[in-house]
Amino acid sequence: MDAAKTHLGDLVEFIGYASFAGLDQPFYQPFGTFARLGYPSELIRPLLTGAGVRDWGLSAEKEALCPYGAQAELLPFSGDLARPIHLWKFRTSLGKVGSFSGPREQTDPQWWGWMRWISERYSVPFRITYSSLATHNHFAIERGQFVFNNKAPVLKLRGTASEDAYVSVLAVLNSSVACFWMKQIFQSRGATAANKNHPDPERFAYEIAGTGLQMLPIPDLGAHREVLLDLGRRIDAMARKRTSFLSTSAWVQRATSVAGLRSAFAERWRGHDDVRQRMIFLQEEIDWLVYFLFGLTTRPLVSHLSSGRIARGQRAFERVGGHRSFVIERGQPVSAKDAECDTCENDVMPELQEVTDTRELEIRNNKTVAAVECYLFKRLWRDTELNIRECDFREKLDAEQMEKWLLNRIEQAAAMRDASFTLSRVAADLMPDKQFAIVAEYYSGSASFNLDVLISDLVQRESVPNHPTHVYTESGLTKRAAWEAIWEHQRRQDVGEGPGDVSNPPEYSQGGRRGKSTDFLCTDYWHLRGKLDVPKER
Question: Which pTM value belongs to this model?
Fold first, then answer.
């Protein structure tokens, strides 16, 4: 690799942050929050964090309030942006966010914008983004759908590079050789929050800094450019298809009967597993081609098949060294058979047997390739990075999606009413909704479920009382009073009265090991509000 004449820095115009809020809670929230607070869809974008960049694909778990226009310019604080009171309530806190030059209010009067927003990094049709803290190298092409936080840096190639140029670079960035290089250069940060106290180095996260990443060697693709490009295009498309299987739309249209819904969930995971096996095949083709491009093998050990599948456990290095899962329960590893869930065939395709045998032989005889062909540098291709069995994760994801869908329908029914109402009235409104009844039955696990009880249980976990004395403890009420004093001060400032400076309002807490106060009467309220008391409830 050291002999490579080209490095990533020679190809890129920039690597680094595109944006981050500075103070997260006013700008980053679960989906649906900002619409409830009164903001139009034009100001709301899916938020891409580092955790949302995995295995060539992109997914967002939260949305962002994005006060920027079509040209990525900061909008004036007026109209649809200023009409809801939400951002105004955090004006003092946003002004107190610190930077190298001091509090933001001293240098930037536009307090409603994000702490860092580099417009030119949003002005290109696509860019490569990556997870800056991850167990393996996770890079993907982003095509203008998302906004980014500081855990998902972006890189842009020089000039007006084509999408094909991005795909070619992406294929090298996602190769196992690149992972090997990165883990020699960057610092391990140990187990992540998802793998707390995990003992295996394969599950340790590495912090990938943009400055160091510029030194990544890039091989001369030569006559193999089109082959690598074709592989990159195909796996990029497969990654988007795999993500689609994990969305609610993958099953909701089939909710015309309980049997149909059950079948839809099963087909969702079969489709997901099929795509994953096809992605593993393409990743192996890329890895073994890149070995040759870097001179690690004397010829490219690729199949050149137009389509193929490889199951986890059937990659050449796994057949040589064994198949592991990296799930730990009670201090003991769980077998791959029990930890992983794969609904497709696990045998090696006959068309791939010869190249698989050749790769196994290369691993046994080539110490350099053998050093790279191991779980430390090869993707694990798991459903989740959480330390749980995949069957449990799938049940949990299915249930969470059904719960959110049911809550959305309940919220829609409630929104149709202008006056106060009881939950029983909402339940009566939903009784004729056949699709709601089908999803509710499958979610509850019984055809004899009680609709009133189901709705009550769902709503109780997503609601907070109106009156402060029903929400906060005494310490919480004290902090609430401090916030209300800040808001009164801001009102005086708005009409040109009162001093210009004011102290930062206190954050809420819910106990903990450091002796923090318990400010909410119910832990559910704390989960729905957080340390800045942002109302996420429905």
Answer: 0.94
